[in-house]
Amino acid sequence: MGFVVNTFSVSILFAIIAILVLLILIAFVSAAESAFFSLSPTEMEELKSSGNTTDEKILELINGPKRLLATLLISVNFLSIAIVILNSTFIFGEDGLLNFSESPLLGFIIQVVLITFLILLVGEVTPKIYATQNSLSATRTLVNFVKILQRLFYPISSFLIFSTSLLDKVIKPQSHNISVDELSQALELTNDEDIPEEDHKILQGIVKFGNTDVKQVMKSRMDVAAFEYNTSYKKLLQNITNSGFSRLPIYKDTLDNIAGVLYTKDLLQYLNNGDDFNWQSILRPPFYVPENKKIDDLLREFQHKKIHLAVVVDEYGGTSGIVTLEDVIEEIVGEINDEFDDDDLTYSKLDNDNFVFEGKAHLNDVFRIIEVDSDEFEDARDEADTLAGLIIEVEGRIPTKNEKIKFKNLVFTIESADNRKIKRVKITILRDEEVEN
């Protein structure tokens, strides 16, 4: 048979009980490791704001992550070694319950498989799964147990921390620059339940941030509020009041010839001046950027130059539009509305599957509002930046009123158009079963 069953004794009974107790202790340590290092930002805020003694102990342990981790690792190793010693002495030893002296190879295999299985299943996998899913309650349950372990193994953990700090000085950690593609893949693998919807949208905005051109977020010249250089001061004040903007381009003759940018705050001290006031003297020099400039680079330039508005120019030097700091930030955090913004002006939501947009609505805003991935339309949009531009790119012409264009899982219904442009479009989102039909 390969092994001999010896007489069951009291010492073997105590050894079995001790092994079970040690397995439970390993399970507690493993659960504590997963729980303490799995706390979400929301749970951390709850701990900080609760003010009770237990939560203060948890925060104290978390604030010393090296000692906490060293304590837990030392505890697991000591407990595992103790199980191996008890097992080899009282269960599989010469005087133990099972004697494999006649077949040592078989005894070695059984010991390794059995002990490894018990430690992994009972002491590692099961408690870690539970603790990860219930991290806050697990930390509150195990915090006193961990504090006892920390006091018990304090000298050993101190030596371990000292040793690792010396290694950190000798071996410089290699920095790993995460690419946009890697970050995008990580975001796709993330469970939606782990991250709130709004936070998930912000992360998606960050991923796409470095690949977005100024042309994709700018306000086109057709929608730019700008005033002629020779406008009278009285008329200028009326125009500014009607526009609601704090920074306005000022042009000579045409929008392609920008004379400067007017900051309305610069006019405050001159509000009582007469119509002969030379308001042109307080214009600030315009900041020009090309259409293909990446908005992450533009954001850095805005920060460096401490300005909020840039004039976007095309390859011929003509004015394509303007881009503001708000336009750039909205690509990350979503739409920012102030008292001058009118939501109904751009679009209206009929239901979850039907929206009405103006043709000039920017594609990035449209995709964000109807919650579709803009990457799916990257090939079709070509140089188009507006909803009307996308439809013209898809059809190769300007559709007529009431015409319907189906593209991917969207149906565009032209509600208003003339022979020059598309004015208003209804978008219907087709669900999977509708697309198949």
Detailed description of the structure:
- The chain has 437 residues and is of the alpha+beta class.
- The chain has 4 domains: 4-170; 180-209; 214-333, Roll (CBS-domain); 343-436, 2-Layer Sandwich (Uridine Diphospho-n-acetylenolpyruvylglucosamine Reductase, domain 3), CATH 3.30.465.
- It has 18 helices and 14 strands.
- The protein has helices spanning 10-36, 41-50, 53-62, 65-91, 104-133, 135-152, 154-170, 180-189, 197-209, 214-217, 233-243, 295-305, 325-333, 343-346, 363-370, 378-381, 387-395, 432-436, and strands at 4-5, 98-99, 219-220, 227-228, 247-251, 258-263, 288-290, 309-313, 319-324, 347-351, 354-358, 404-407, 410-417, 422-429.
- The strands form 4 sheets. Strands 10-11-14-13-12 form a 5-stranded antiparallel β-sheet. The chain has a 4-stranded mixed β-sheet with strand order 3-9-8-7. The chain has a 3-stranded mixed β-sheet with strand order 4-5-6, covered by helices on one side.
- Helix 2 (41-50) packs across helix 3.
- The longest helix is centred in the first third of the chain and has 30 residues, at 104-133.
- It is elongated.
* Number of helices, counting only DSSP H or I runs of 4 residues or more: 18
Unreliable residue stretches: none
Q: Structural class of the secondary elements?
A: alpha+beta
How far the N terminus sits from the C terminus, by CA atoms, comes to: 68 Å
Which range best describes the helical content: under 10%, 10-25%, 25-40%, 40-55%, 55-70% or over 70%? 40-55%
Rounded Rg: 34 Å
| Main sheet properties | 5 strands, antiparallel
Residue share in β-strands: 5-15%
Order of strands across the widest beta sheet?
A: 10-11-14-13-12
